[in-house]
Design a protein that fits this description.
Helix content: 25-40%
Number of helices: 10
Number of strands: 9
CATH superfamily of the largest domain: HUPs
CATH architecture of the largest domain: 3-Layer(aba) Sandwich
Strand order of the largest sheet: 1-4-3-2-5-6
Order of helices and strands: EHEHEHEHHHEHEHHHEEE
Number of domains: 2
Bound molecules: pantoate
Length: 280
């Protein structure tokens, strides 16, 4: 199978208009590339629900902090294109930075107050502004029927749902369950930063938050469980734990309530990699 690669918003819009004229529905899968089975599951889910599927690859500079891995972030467009073609994606949209933000970089940003400032937002200031800005642009550029995002980035999904609702963007946002390696490690492009020894340690993240979830269901105290989990991770080989938090699933607000849908979210450093994960 081959897949066409579009580089400009004008070409993307022309393609989508053609599909619309043919009465076809359109799914969008935004990514930053370095595609793994988690991304490909998003594409397959989109293919099951929409007639045509666009995957985007854009390493978005606006969502990286000054000391983060923008320069070293894996860029593997040719391999990614083959993977997308193999699963049956229809179009790859891969603009460059000037096409996305114009020659002056753009001055408008989308900011989801509150939800975008906690957890990941507290440890990575500006991150969700960058995500919300680029996802808004991608949604308005493609105007798909449905856009698909992984639950692995649970807070990101919540932020996207919130600004799409607030801004009346006429696109359905669909979350897709996290895809895991056989030992439980959530698939992530940043797993590539783990060396052999760290890769053995990494599944402790999922095991620990799963146990927090179980213990909470059995009546455990949220704060005590968070402390216990942090200790487990540090003793198990993680160097730094940014947070282990039990939050309300729908808005990530504090205040653990038994019987209400909750989410356990974690972010921790293992070597060069900052890993995040979450469970219900
Ligand atoms: O999850 C990602 O890969 C990115 O944050 C996204 C949604 C593609 C925006 O750049």
């Amino acid at each position: 199978m081959t897949i066409s690669t579009l580089r400009t918003v004008a070409d993307l819009r022309a393609q989508v208009s053609q599909w619309r004229a043919d009465g076809l529905t359109v799914g969008l899968v935004p990514t930053m590339g370095a595609l793994h089975d988690g991304h490909l599951t998003l594409v397959k889910t989109a293919l099951a629900k929409c007639d045509r599927v666009i995957a985007t690859i854009f390493v978005n500079p606006k969502q990286f902090g000054p000391n983060e891995d923008l320069d070293s972030y894996p860029r593997t467009e040719n391999e990614d294109r083959e993977k997308l073609a193999d699963v049956g994606g229809h179009v790859l949209f891969a603009p460059n930075v000037a096409e996305m933000y114009g020659t002056d970089g753009g001055v408008t940003k989308i900011c989801v107050s509150g939800l975008g400032d906690i957890l990941e937002g507290a440890f990575r200031p500006g991150f969700f502004d960058g995500v919300a800005t680029v996802v808004t642009k991608l949604l308005l550029q493609a105007l798909p029927d449905v856009a698909f995002f992984g639950e692995k980035d649970y807070q990101q999904l919540a932020v996207i749902k919130r600004f799409v609702a607030d801004l009346n963007i006429p696109v359905t946002i669909e979350g897709v369950p996290t895809v895991r390696e056989t030992d439980g490690l959530a698939m992530s492009s940043r797993n590539a930063y783990l060396d052999r020894e760290e890769r053995q340690i990494a599944p402790l993240l999922y095991r620990t938050i799963s146990e927090v979830s179980e213990r909470f269901k059995m009546g455990g105290d949220a704060e005590a469980l968070s402390k216990w989990a942090t200790q487990q991770l540090l003793e198990g080989g993680f160097q730094k734990v940014d947070y282990v938090a039990l939050r309300k699933a729908h808005d990530l607000a504090e205040g653990a309530v038994k019987g209400e849908a909750m989410r356990v979210l974690v972010a921790a450093f293992l070597g060069k990699a900052r890993l995040i994960d979450n469970v219900g």
